[in-house]
Structures are given as structure tokens and as C-alpha cells.
Design brief:
CATH superfamily of the domain at 219-381: Sec63 N-terminal domain-like domain
Radius of gyration: 44 Å
Strand content: 5-15%
Largest sheet: 6 strands, mixed
Oligomer: single chain
Distance between the termini: 89 Å
Shape: elongated
Number of strands: 11
Length: 784
């Protein structure tokens, strides 16, 4: 290998092969992923969409946000088509290369069949050489050299031998290594340009691109929020543990995303000094006298004006302030989510005593309330009916009927169709149809909560310091399921189902006490995990050990009975051997054992009673086995559900659920939800809020917290909050009866290995007299 030299491609053939394969690797996936596909429009989309004034304006805004969409698609198609044309030209170029002696066949070159005589070969060579000789007008030097080699391969003995052995009349060729690059790259006159190109790409362009990307990425969080904004949130929430909603808006407006120094997309105009004061005069509850930094800065003041105007639904100049409003409102959901995460982290740090002040539950809930306010463009104290299309402030008086005032959307849906139409009598048929379309798509959530202690024998018994797992199941349906079913309307009352009502009635009447007693009995009958793994018959041995202990503590007047018990013990091994050899014992054998245990004098009635008792015991054993199998099935089902949940976590969070009707929000919005547990009595947060972003039909979330350290009855609240709609929040209370934690046993039979060691040490065939659950005193007495 030391004498080998790498050769560059002189003819350019191998370089074209390299370029062809490289271009194909780029074009195939690029065409698959980037080729513009025509979106198939749903013919029923127009019928399903709302045609209110706000929705029409929003559709126009969404279309205007992509002015270059058609040009980008055309340019993408052109680049991909040119790439495939260039690939086809390269393929044709490569196919035209004729490498010498690639398939050397002298008979084919001379134009004679195989097995031709030497005379005919010479004649054919002479005929073609007169045509291909370089001295002739029709001569071809390359073809003549190939003809000569073919003639030598068939007439010369050594050349024919080389051809038959190596496929080449010249003999075996030398091994050579080449590089699939053209030779002009290493030519001396081109070396400066080649080195300059390498330096420009790898020493200037590549480090610059990586540095710019890295510098920008380290300034943002995972949700593309500036780290400086997150630090400001932490400062203010730590400074003010209990924060009102209006102050949350002040902090949100001071986000650095709205300052031109941090965000180049912010536009400042000369007309701002005139338009902003005019809008500020229309805001009655603005309150501009704040002097805290950066809350008093100009950019924060302008952002706050636009937020207040958005929540008050004040019309703004379309080409100036309205564009700024849409940009700021579009950023708010991400910033509010970061605020919620920041407050929850502060609360958890306060629990760990790493920060001194504990933010209250009202602070984080005010942050969550701000989400649907920004999406719907409504203040919290406004009626949630204003989320319906074609409904304004002046129309709310129609909902205040004499029979039953309608204050929420759920109450409106539960009305009969004629009552709904009578309330909306100020709308025409098309507008009324828009209202029913929007209401029909709104969410109807069945919020189910179950609390337990996972990986514990008694999962419904809560002890002090135990890890409590609250499984929250969210089943999402459309409101339109209540339109044609009057019974369903009665079942789905506002924030409460029939099951919840029945449970509350049972608690009032005291009917839950029997159920609790039954659950306790079931839990007591459950076998512990370490006992399930025992062999059959451990219950009998345990009972015998307990009876032995009781009999040994009896007075001397009952010594005769004790001696009979000891005789019974001695006979037990023989009977066990018979049972193992001959199968299960008969009733006669059972009667004999009963007679021996009872002293030999027993009547027939007693025998029949005892046999019935044995039958009952066998039935109890069968029922116990069934219970064990049912418990195993439950454990397996719980394991599978946990495994599927972990798979969903590994796959990543989906951001698609259901589209929200929000004409005042400049983008398409999906339904998201917050789920958390709080203690209303102490106004604290027990679990970090979980953000649910993929609730299409059903979603399950597990919330875990540590049970209180002191025994007692505690009531916690599981909260479900929407970040898109006002008036759709739900709360469910869970009651925990916390018991005192049991002491850890030190002399548990599970860890007492002395009996097992003695059993192993005994020879085969000799049964053990000591029960697995016998105490040390019993073992000493048996030894005596």
C-alpha cells in the first residue's frame, strides 16, 4: 500500500456517478415532503362554519397573513422540477460512457462467430483494418487499437491465454485507487480558488450560521419565550404572593416580547403618540399611574392599552393599532402558559423551603383566567353568553326570562328548542343557525375523578405520608348531543352529573356507611403480596400454630386434650404422605381425623356438621382463589394502562384537539385544559397544573401528591379549567380519611428465614413440624 497513489478522475465519468447518486438522495425525500399538494376542500365546511361578522373578518385576516403562499408553492415546484431535469441529464450522460475493455469480446469486435478458423479471422481483421486504419479517411485510432487487440487475442497463444484467464489480452491489471472528483481540483493554477472556497464554506459560513442559531436559541425557553421575560415573571410573583387579576395583566403587558429592543417584529410609528392617547380615553378602568419598572415603560403601557381595548372589544384603526393588537394577542397564550408554570414552580420551591414566600392559589388561578379572556376578548365579569355569535351587550336582556333566567351557555343548551328560539327572536334564521352551530361544537366534559394508593395492598386506605394518586378521566362530547335528547339534558346539569347527585344524597342519608364497611371487609380479606406467593396449605399451618399456642397457655386441667393434639401432630405427616400419594382424602378420612381431634367420642350429627364445615372451607378456598385471580387481573389492567400512558408521553404531546370559536383571536385556536388539585381551606396548590392539549374524545391524567402527615378527614378540590372558553370550568371534591401510618414490623415472618433454612437442611421425605408462621416461643416448646 505504500507505493499506491490515489488518482483523480481524468475523464469525469466517476464524478458524474457520484453527483448522480448525491442528487438522487436529495431529490427523492425533498419531492415527497416539500412538493405542494392541493388542499382538498371539504364541501360541507361552508355549512359547518360560522358566518358571523367576526368570523368573516378573521378568515380574511388569516388569508392576508400568507400573501406569498402561491408564489412560494410555484417556486418550490420549479426548483424540484429543475432538479429532476438535471438528474435525468446526468443519467443520460453516464449511460453514454464507454469504458475500454469493460466487456472485451474479440469475436464480437471482429464480427465473426465463435469457433471461426484462423484464416477467416485474418480475413476479417484485414477487411476491417482497411477501414479503421488511422491513415485512411474513415480511420479511427481507438477502434483500430481495439481491433488489433482482438486479433492478437485470437491468433497469439500468450494473448489468448491471458484473455481466457483474465478477460484481457494484456494480462492482469494493477490495483489502483481513485477519487470520484475531477482532476482540475488539484491542478496548480486552480488551487487558490479551491482553497478559498473551502475556507469560505467551512471557516466562515458554517461557524457563522451555527453561532447565530446558538445565540438566538439560548435566549428562549421551549415555548419560545424569552428567558428575560421568565425572570421578570419570577421576580414579580415572588414579590407579590397574592396577586389580583388586573396586576397579572400589568405584568403580562411588560413582557419583553413587546419591546423593540428584544423583538425586531415590533413596529413603532409616528402616529402612535396620537392614536394611543385617544384609545386610552375610552378605557374607564385603565389605571396608568403605576411607577414600577418595567411596568411603567412606554412599550408596556402601549401593550396594556391594546390588551384592555381587546378585552373591552373597542374597535381600533385597522392598518395601525389593530395590527399591533393582533400581534400582541397572538403571543398571549404562550406567555400565560409560562406564567402558570412559573407560579407553580415557585409554589413547589416554597414547599421545599428554597424560597421564603408562598404564592397563593388565587395567583395561579388568575393567570389561568386570563387565557380564555384573551382568546374570547372578554372581561371575567362579563356574561359568558357574549361568546355566542351575533349576541351583544344589548341582547342580554332577552335571556332574563320570567321562568328561569339564563346566565350560562349550559343553561341555554338545556332549554327546549322552542324556548331557545324564543330567546333568540331578535335573530333571523341564518343567524340563529350560526348560534346553534357554534353551541353544538362547544365542549361537554364528563369529569371523573378516582383517588387511590397505587402499588399498595389496600389501595383505598390512605395513611399519613402515603403517595395519593388521583386519576382524572376527561370524556369530551359536543353540546349538540343535548339538542334532541331531553333526558340527556336533565342528566347533564351544570357542572354536575346524576352520579354525583346520588352520591351526595347517599352521604346525607348515611347510606355510605354500609358500603364503607363492605370495602373494609374486602380489604381485610385480601391476601398480602408476600402471602400470595406461598404454597397451598399455609393457612392451615398458620391456624394450627395459633391453636397450639393457645393450648399451651391453657391450665393443667386440659392436659389430656393437649396430649391428643400432640398425637394428632405426629399423625399429620403420615396423612399428608397418603394425600400426596393417593390424591385428596375422602370424607371417611376427614371423619377419622375429627374423631381423633375430639377425643374419639362424637355423634353422627357432629360428624355431618364437621363434614359440612370442611365443604364450606373448600368453598372458601375456591372463592379466595377467585379473588386472587380477580386481583391479579386488576393489577394487570392497571399495569397496561400505565404502560400505554408512558407510551403516549414518549411519543410527545399532540397540539390538536378541537377548533375554538374565537372571532377576536387572530389565529386558529385549539381547546386546551388545565387540571390540578388544590386545598381551598388553606388556599394552597397540591399538584402542579397539567396542561392537556390532545383531548379529542377521552384523556386520562394522573395527579400525585403526599397525604397529610396527621390523621383526619381532609377535603381537596380537583379543578378543571379551560384556556379557551369562559364559564366551562369544573370542580370536584375528593374526601380523604387519612389513617395513622402503621409501624414497620421488625419480626415479620417474611424476613424470618430460620424456618426455611431448617426445612432445607432436613433430608428429603421428612416433613417439617414447624409452621411457617410460628413464633419463637412455639419453636422452643417444640424443641423441648
Amino acid at each position: 500500500m505504500g507505493g499506491q497513489k490515489f488518482q483523480y478522475d481524468e475523464s469525469g465519468g466517476t464524478f458524474f456517478y457520484f453527483l448522480l447518486s448525491f442528487l438522487a438522495l436529495l431529490l427523492v425525500p425533498s419531492t415527497y415532503y416539500w412538493w405542494p399538494r392541493k388542499e382538498i376542500e371539504d364541501p360541507t365546511k361552508n355549512e359547518r362554519d360560522c358566518h358571523c361578522k367576526g368570523c368573516k373578518k378573521k378568515q380574511g385576516i388569516l388569508k392576508s397573513n400568507e400573501p406569498w403562499k402561491g408564489m412560494k408553492q410555484l417556486l418550490t415546484k420549479l426548483i424540484i422540477v429543475l432538479g429532476w431535469i438535471f438528474l435525468a441529464l446526468l443519467a443520460y450522460k453516464v449511460s453514454q460512457f464507454d469504458y475500454e475493455y469493460a466487456n472485451f469480446d474479440p469475436y464480437e469486435i471482429l464480427g465473426v462467430p465463435m469457433g471461426t478458423s484462423q484464416a477467416d479471422i485474418k480475413k476479417a481483421y484485414k477487411t476491417q483494418s482497411l477501414v479503421l486504419h488511422p491513415d485512411k479517411k474513415t480511420g479511427d485510432e481507438k477502434a483500430f487499437m481495439k481491433l488489433t487487440k482482438a486479433y492478437q487475442a485470437l491468433t497469439d497463444a500468450e494473448s489468448r491465454k491471458n484473455w481466457e484467464k483474465y478477460g484481457n489480452p494484456d494480462g492482469p491489471g494493477a490495483m489502483s485507487f481513485g477519487i470520484a472528483l475531477p482532476s482540475w481540483i488539484v491542478e496548480k493554477e486552480n488551487s487558490v480558488w479551491v482553497l478559498g472556497l473551502y475556507a469560505l464554506v467551512f471557516m466562515v459560513a458554517l461557524p457563522t450560521v451555527v453561532g447565530i442559531w446558538w445565540y438566538r436559541s439560548i435566549q428562549y425557553t421551549g415555548d419560545q419565550v424569552l428567558l428575560s421575560t421568565c425572570q421578570m415573571y419570577f421576580y414579580f410573583f415572588h414579590k407579590t404572593p397574592s396577586m389580583a387579576l388586573k396586576r397579572v395583566i400589568l405584568i403580562l403587558s411588560a413582557s419583553h416580547e413587546f419591546e423593540k429592543q428584544y423583538n425586531s417584529e415590533i413596529v413603532e410609528r409616528p402616529t402612535d403618540n396620537i392614536e394611543y392617547p385617544q384609545v386610552m380615553k375610552q378605557l374607564s378602568n385603565f389605571g396608568e399611574k403605576n411607577r414600577e419598572r418595567p411596568l411603567c415603560y412606554t412599550y408596556a403601557l402601549r401593550a396594556r392599552v391594546l390588551m384592555f381595548a381587546h378585552l373591552s372589544r373597542i374597535p381600533l384603526p385597522e392598518n395601525t393599532l389593530d395590527r399591533d393588537r393582533m400581534y400582541i394577542v397572538k403571543k398571549c397564550p404562550y406567555l400565560i402558559r409560562e406564567m402558570v408554570n412559573g407560579v407553580s414552580q415557585l409554589i413547589m420551591l416554597a414547599y421545599a423551603r428554597r424560597v421564603s414566600r408562598l404564592p397563593s392559589i388565587e395567583t395561579i388561578e388568575n393567570c389561568m383566567k386570563l387565557g380564555p379572556m384573551m382568546v374570547q376578548g372578554l372581561w371575567e365579569y362579563k356574561s359568558p353568553l357574549l361568546q355566542l355569535p351575533h349576541v351583544g351587550e344589548e341582547h342580554l336582556k332577552f335571556f332574563l326570562t320570567k321562568k328561569r333566567p339564563v346566565k350560562t351557555i349550559q343553561q341555554f343548551v338545556q332549554l327546549k328548542s322552542e324556548d331557545r328560539r324564543s330567546i333568540l327572536r331578535f335573530l333571523d334564521d341564518e343567524q340563529y343557525e350560526d348560534v346553534m352551530k357554534v353551541v353544538g361544537k362547544m365542549p361537554l366534559i364528563d369529569f371523573q375523578v378516582r383517588s387511590e394508593v397505587i402499588d399498595d395492598e389496600a389501595s383505598t386506605v390512605f395513611t399519613a405520608g402515603a403517595i395519593v394518586t388521583v386519576s382524572c378521566t376527561l370524556i369530551r362530547k359536543d353540546m349538540q348531543t343535548l339538542f334532541g335528547d331531553e333526558s340527556a339534558k336533565e342528566k347533564h346539569c351544570e357542572f354536575e352529573s346524576v352520579e354525583a347527585k346520588e352520591k351526595s344524597e347517599k352521604k346525607e342519608d348515611g347510606e355510605n356507611e354500609d358500603d364503607e364497611n363492605k370495602e373494609k371487609e374486602k380489604e381485610a380479606s385480601k391476601k398480602p403480596v408476600w402471602q400470595k406467593q406461598q404454597r397451598k396449605g399455609t393457612k392451615k399451618s398458620a391456624k394450627k400454630a395459633q391453636s397450639n399456642k393457645k393450648q399451651q397457655n391453657k391450665p393443667e386441667a386440659k392436659n389430656a386434650t393437649v396430649t391428643k393434639k400432640e398425637e394428632e401432630k405426629e399423625k399429620e405427616p403420615e396423612k399428608r404422605e397418603k394425600k400426596t400419594a393417593n390424591g385428596p382424602s375422602s370424607n371417611a378420612e376427614k371423619k377419622e381425623t375429627v374423631k381423633e381431634a375430639g377425643g374419639g367420642d362424637s355423634s353422627g350429627a357432629d360428624e355431618s356438621d364437621l363434614s359440612d364445615d370442611d365443604a364450606d372451607r373448600s368453598d372458601d378456598d375456591d372463592s379466595g382463589d377467585k379473588k386472587e385471580s380477580m386481583e391479579d387481573d386488576d393489577d394487570w389492567a392497571r399495569f397496561q394502562s400505565n404502560f400505554r400512558r408512558r407510551d403516549r408521553v414518549l411519543e410527545g404531546k399532540s397540539k390538536l384537539s378541537h377548533t375554538v370559536h374565537c372571532p377576536y383571536f387572530p389565529e386558529e385556536k385549539q381547546e386546551y385544559w388545565w387540571v390540578y388539585i388544590s386545598d381551598r381551606k388553606s388556599r394552597t396548590l397540591l399538584t402542579s397544573p397539567v396542561h392537556i392539549t390532545a383531548l379529542v374524545e377521552k384523556e386520562e391524567v394522573q395527579l400525585k401528591f403526599t397525604a397529610p402527615r396527621w390523621p383526619g378527614v381532609y377535603i381537596f378540590t380537583v379543578c378543571l379549567r379551560s384556556d379557551s372558553y369562559l364559564g366551562f370550568d369544573q370542580t370536584t371534591e375528593i374526601k380523604l380519611d387519612v389513617k395513622e401510618a402503621p409501624e414497620v414490623p421488625t419480626d415479620h415472618p417474611q424476613w424470618d428465614m430460620s424456618g426455611e433454612e431448617e426445612e432445607e437442611s432436613k433430608p428429603e421425605g421428612e416433613p417439617s413440624d414447624i409452621s411457617e408462621f410460628a413464633t419463637d416461643d412455639d419453636i422452643d416448646d417444640d424443641d423441648d
